[in-house]
Specification:
This protein is an alpha+beta fold. It contains 3 helices and 9 strands, in the order αββββαβαββββ. The longest helix has 14 residues. It is globular, with a radius of gyration of 18 Å. The C terminus is likely disordered.
Length: about 180
């Protein structure tokens, strides 16, 4: 792949939000390390079968994003063919299931804070700068949906870098 930015554009994200019924937890906003409630950007709608779902309002969603929230769409590979093709190639190479989640932010405000994931993560940044602080393991062999909390990370990360979305990251600190 020569242009990661060709996988997903902001127009693609807008189209997916406008044409799919995306609800929490599949579509969510995060700010300052906390997941935001839906009510500022979605309203409950009752179907003819009396099912209630949350309809995203684009103007309110865009307002939350302009105020610094980060957008997450889980399993975007199920919704967008170029990402599905990438996931399929990764699955054949890694020989395991791959799920692609899209994260997008329109401001410098931190969306997720320091956290750990209970699964392996490969990051492909397609546009704009992002400051990454990577810490070593704080828990040996964490399990999926582990209930025990890991120890806090050490003060100094093992890597402190800025990815400008256009190639190799710039190192901000010591490795």
């Amino acid at each position: 792949m020569t242009d990661p930015g060709a996988l997903v554009s902001f127009d693609t994200l807008n189209d997916l939000i406008a044409t799919h019924r995306l609800e929490v937890p599949r579509l969510r906003l995060s700010s300052g390390g906390e997941m935001l409630p839906q009510h500022p950007y979605a309203v409950p709608v009752t179907t003819r079968r009396h099912t209630i779902w949350q309809r995203t309002h684009p103007a309110e969603l865009h307002q939350c994003l302009a105020e610094g929230a980060s957008l997450v769409i889980d399993a975007i590979d199920e919704l967008h063919e170029p990402v599905a093709d990438l996931a399929q190639h990764l699955e054949s190479w890694l020989r395991t299931h791959v799920q692609v989640n899209a994260h997008a932010s329109w401001s410098a405000r931190e969306g997720f804070g320091t956290h750990w994931d209970d699964h392996d993560v490969i990051v492909l940044q397609v546009e704009g700068p992002k400051h990454w602080r990577l810490y070593g393991p704080t828990r040996i062999a964490p399990m999926h949906r582990d209930t025990a909390q890991p120890e806090p990370p050490p003060e100094q990360p093992v890597a402190d870098l800025v990815d400008n979305g256009a190639g190799a990251p710039d190192v901000c600190g010591r490795w």
